[in-house]
Amino acid sequence: MKVILFILIFINNPLAKSDLIVIEGVVLNAETSEPIANAVIYIPENEAYTTTKSDGTFSLRIELNQTFRIKVTHLAFQEKLIDINPKSDNIKKIIIYLVPKTLNLSPVVITDKNNLTIYDEIKDYSSTLRGKELQRNLSQTLASTLKNEIGLSVRSMGPAPSRPVFRGLGQDRILLEEDGIKSIDLSATSPDHAVTIEPFNSVRIEVLRGPKILTKTSSSIGGIVNIIKDELPKQLHNTYHLTLGGYVESVNKGYLGSVQTEVPLNPFSTKFELTKRKTSDINTPEGQLNNSASEILNASAGISFIDEFGYIGSSFQLYELDYGIPGGFIGAHPKGVNIDIQKKQLRVDSRVKLNDENDFLQFSYKTIYYRQKEFEFSGRIGSEFRIITNLAEIALNHTNFSIFDEGILGLSVEHRDFEIGGFVFTPPTSSFNIAAYIYEEITLGKFNLNFGLRYSADFITPKIENQYSKIGQIRKRNFSNISGSTSLIYKLSDNVYIGANLSKSSRVPTIEELFSEGPHLAAYSYEVGNPELSSESGVGTEFFVYHKFEKLNFNINFFYNNFSSFIIPRNSGEINYQTFLPIYKTIGIAALLFGFDGSFRWNFLENYFLTHSMSYTKGMFRYNSKPLPQIPPFKGITGIEFKADELTIGANFEWAFRQDDVDIFEQPTAGYIILNTFAQYLFYINGSVSSVSISLDNILNSSYRNHLSRIKSIMPEGGFNIRIIYKLMI
Question: What is residue 510's predicted lDDT score, i.e. its pLDDT?
Fold first, then answer.
């Protein structure tokens, strides 16, 4: 749930002698469009205040001619601070998103003044997980939390090393971010590597696509999963906030404890988080899956200096993860492999306001130390990876410049030092990337046009060159790419939009795709890179319809992606007889991926909602129309919900068709239907707010396989599970 606060500000001749300002507005619930009564509207400069009426409206008359602050508070919601300059603010309507205390773990500001584009609004409707929905979907990993979102699937090699896949596109075509900055780990390179993001304290999770993603990545056909945690405070509140959270589930005897606090020390604000999670081996309908346990520690601390100019702050995060990769099948270690990950990162972020509240310069810097060790069951180390990465970015965000409504211009650099040890034969390598980008938006009547362009240069330098390697000449490689994307949206009515997107995408091959040469212990494969690879390149098209009425919301997307070069590791069918591992060769080949996805939500009776979403992707080699490997099946989720003020109850069927459209050495997967149900209740005690969610997953204990699992031959997904999540905000 979120609340939209509409404030209509009428400034009566601010340059005249009279300094009287009349502020009128209304507070509404965005989910139900119902008014919010008893919200306090307060002006600290002259201590004027009022409260909203039963219909959510208010009116406040003040006499001020300098910049002043509006503070909006309510017991159930995070306070909101709005700065108004009566001499320059001529905005007739301001839209502010407030997040209820019951739904998130920290105060969150989406935007002070509404500058969301039509494209943002459409994608926000279909691709953002927040509030109560986010809380009850929280699971062991980021990917399992998102598994039922539109277009998303889960690539896995056990419960812990899972990663989102979007429309059949995985690896680094899907960029993972924390608070808008790239998350660094090895999860994009191999299915045995885990994502190093703890989702429990997420405020919001966004699946982003369209031209704007070119401000972050060159892969315009893919997308971005942005996990918003607000580790760095960006706004100064007048009191502290404390959130306690916990989680237990039966399928793996898992539990989690979390504490998070934000303390204002004017003009500074500090924020701390500590989360500990532990799971045992997972239980499936066919028995326990050995060596699938995990243990996570996530800790962070941040401090910001906040003033009228904006803010500048820094945060430090420690992430430690130990988990197992199951074994016991052909090519695998009999008792599996254990992996130990440690990540330390330091972040500096600054936002400086310019002439207008929505014009600002943003600078960010992040340095990450990442270490991963892979152990045989006996404890002997098989491989080790160490990555030191430095990222820096500067961006100018503007509004109302020339013919453009808003835009972003920026420059980013990244340096990575990649060291490898153990029984891995990929050479230590350094890489450097520099990129420049532009994003702009124009509104012309009922048309909205937005476009992005990104140029990037990459320099990949192995520290040991080898002209006579079996896989080819290992040497320095330089890449230069241009990516572009544009979207056109037409407003048919106030509630119906149609649009199209055209993208030219590029992606530089990873170090592993170029130079791997030998066994990969935890992936149970013998990996052969290709040092002659050129950049991945493709053209993507998308057509979408967005419909939002009072009782019925739906959207549907059709996409067609044509790659002239699509880089994939492919099972060759050969065996390396020294290690008895299957050989996976990296190839770049012409390919097609196309399909559709969509969702609808129908309020068919008072408080009752019918929901449905579905995703279908077909992938094929262009030269012979044979199936690409690792393409998810036609899948979806169909459910019903009852929603009252404090109580939500629902049930759904999660389903997938049989996937036998597979590559030559790939195993097909049977279809399935599983039944889930949930209940969520919010309550208030002495000014604190609590929320408890209870979910029953796979109620019938059905045995089913995830097609994108590399170990599905021995690993069905989890059986019947009871999951309880509790959050307390003070």
Answer: 93
